[in-house]
Specification:
about 240 residues, mainly beta, Sortase, Chain: A, eight-stranded mixed beta barrel, two-stranded antiparallel sheet, 3 helices, 10 strands, about 30% strand
Length: about 240
């Protein structure tokens, strides 16, 4: 039987998370004082495209949104674990950020972009259910809002995540897939690296995506924060 991953992620348009990025909270409050943290250069991948990511970080700094924080040396990457059989996920946890949220299935809109969870449900994330399930070989995609009109949402602090952190995904087969963070990067929306983020992977990998980069009251957030992680175990 063919797994869901046979559909692939290549059909996702570059518009994937534009609907996540209105910056409703900042717009309503007329301030950027409480803008979400952005990843530092030290959290980028070893093969980071300094041009694309640097532009997004510069945009964040120009908006007064860059946080200065100490970043420890990158830990040695944890070895990959054997892939798990396909099973839809039910919940995502990121202990270091105190994220503990249910997951809903997401499809594609008529324009080919990934649909998004209802904005009013701030502690809800979604996964691309026509693609890879978290834990099987390939690239699984999870997305969630950074804020809504009432304040921070599920992935508000995603940009503060560090390499080596653990992400846990509960699956409907009763198991939990454990992922280790390889990199946390920020990209300008106009230079979003589709293949790098959504492309097929030879091992079980996970991407967690929300909004980030610079902020404009007219158009909202100017880019996206993307977490890259790989499967290291299960329980």
């Amino acid at each position: 039987m063919r797994s869901r991953s046979s559909v692939g992620n290549g059909v996702i348009a570059a518009l994937t998370v534009l609907a996540l990025c209105s910056g409703a909270w900042l717009l309503r409050n007329g301030t950027e004082t409480h803008a979400p943290p952005q990843p530092s250069a030290a959290q980028a991948g070893e093969a980071e495209d300094a041009g694309d990511a640097g532009e997004a970080r510069d945009a964040g700094e120009a908006g007064g949104r860059r946080e200065t924080r100490h970043t420890p040396a990158s830990p040695h990457p944890r070895p990959s674990a054997t892939e798990l059989p396909p099973s839809p996920p039910d919940r995502i946890r990121i202990p270091s950020l105190r994220v503990d949220a249910p997951l809903m299935g997401l499809g594609l809109t008529s324009t080919g972009s990934l649909d998004v969870p209802p904005a009013e449900r701030k502690n809800l994330a979604g996964w691309y259910e026509s693609g890879t399930t978290p834990g099987e070989t390939g690239t699984a995609i999870v997305a969630g809002h950074v804020d809504n009109a009432d304040g921070p949402a599920v992935f508000y602090r995603l940009g503060a995540l560090e390499k080596g952190s653990t992400i846990e995904v509960d699956r409907r087969d009763g198991g939990t897939a454990l992922f280790s963070v390889d990199a946390v990067e920020v990209y300008d929306a106009k230079a979003f690296p589709d293949e790098k983020v959504y492309g097929a992977a030879p091992r079980p990998e996970l991407r967690v995506i929300t909004c980030g980069g610079g902020y404009s009251r007219t158009t909202g957030y100017q880019g996206n924060v993307v977490v890259f992680a790989h499967l290291t175990g299960s329980r």
